[in-house]
Design brief:
The chain is of the alpha/beta class and 318 residues long. It contains eleven helices and 14 strands. Its main location: other.
């Protein structure tokens, strides 16, 4: 017969309480919410603020912890954010890249550690790095703007194009969509094409310089709404706001109001809230086990002008 040992039994009970009552490391980890990093190119533009905040809000609604990181249009700072997100145990990254080529390496940092990356609005030039890329159909949106531009300028006259960031594919998708239409009209003459990095103040300075050389332009096509507002401000200062038609792209609040006030002619309405929510929901699907995501998911862009502006509000339809 085995002798009863009270001390030994007490040890067994203690171990059982630790393992079963408190839970081991794996069980505790399972009870923690997933962590999602929202890394955006810049928070110095209202459009990206909406994109970032909507992504974080939707992630929070889905039960995740969400943190926003601002790359300040700096790929090196973006790299720091990716390394921080991976080392800090973030489970997914909702990502708005700074550069189509320069950001690829950062996405691979996450992929190598098994962290899915969902690109929002801006793409990277790789199809084997991000889990999925949810992108505005900038090209098609600017085809529509190009047609309206031709109509409003009566197929003739001098015009200017102000480009965004040269390293962003959206810059060139918008420009190519616009020119696919406008270049078919030989009496429409582009007298200047300069970049202003999607920045309002830079666009104002660029427009001021162009007007000194080409005071007789009839239209300005801008790659985003911040630059459209900067260009319009320069036209107001030079007394030419009533002589030059301005076209933007984004669907930002100040441009929607300016279209309503018959100051700016048109813009391409993107849907950043839809893009951001889709990215967060894709992250949830990934956590639930889905792996077969489309590499590129296009989101329609709609043209807003003075005729239909009543149907729209900032960053979306009413």
């Amino acid at each position: 017969m085995t002798n009863f040992n009270p001390l030994k039994m007490l040890c067994f009970f203690a171990i059982a309480l630790i393992l079963n009552g408190c839970g081991g490391p794996d069980e505790r980890a399972l009870n923690q919410p997933k962590k999602v990093a929202v890394i955006v190119s810049t928070l110095n533009n209202p459009w990206f603020v909406v994109l970032a905040e909507t992504a974080a809000d939707r992630a929070t609604e889905l039960g995740f912890e969400a943190t926003i990181f601002d790359s300040q249009n700096n790929t090196a700072l973006e790299t720091d954010h990716f390394e921080n997100a991976v080392s800090s145990g973030y489970d997914a990254i909702l990502f708005n890249p700074t550069d189509a080529d320069g950001s690829i390496a950062n996405v691979r940092i996450a992929k190598e550690k098994g962290v899915p990356v969902f690109c929002m609005d801006r793409e990277i030039n790789a199809t084997d790095a991000a889990t999925s890329q949810i992108l505005s159909d900038s090209y098609a949106g600017c085809v529509a703007i190009g047609k309206y531009f031709v109509e409003k300028l009566n197929k003739k006259g001098k015009y200017v194009e102000i480009l965004g960031l040269v390293g962003d594919n959206n810059t060139w998708s918008r420009s190519k969509g616009f020119h696919s239409v406008v270049d078919n009209y030989p009496e429409l003459q582009m007298v200047a094409q300069q970049n202003a990095d999607f920045d309002r103040n830079k666009a104002m300075e660029v427009m001021e310089s162009i007007l000194q050389v080409h005071p007789d332009i009839k239209g300005v096509f801008c790659g985003n709404d911040a630059m459209a507002m900067g260009a319009y401000q320069a036209l107001v200062s030079s007394g030419k706001a009533d002589q030059v038609m301005v076209f933007g792209f984004d669907g930002a609040s100040d441009v929607i109001n300016s279209i309503r006030d018959k100051k700016i002619l048109a813009t391409g309405m993107q849907f950043p809230k839809l893009i951001a929510r889709t990215a967060a929901e894709y992250a949830q699907s990934y956590f639930d086990g889905k792996r077969d995501f489309a590499q590129k998911v296009p989101v329609t862009v709609e043209m807003v002008n003075q005729e239909n502006v009543k149907d729209y509000q900032a960053y979306g339809s009413k």
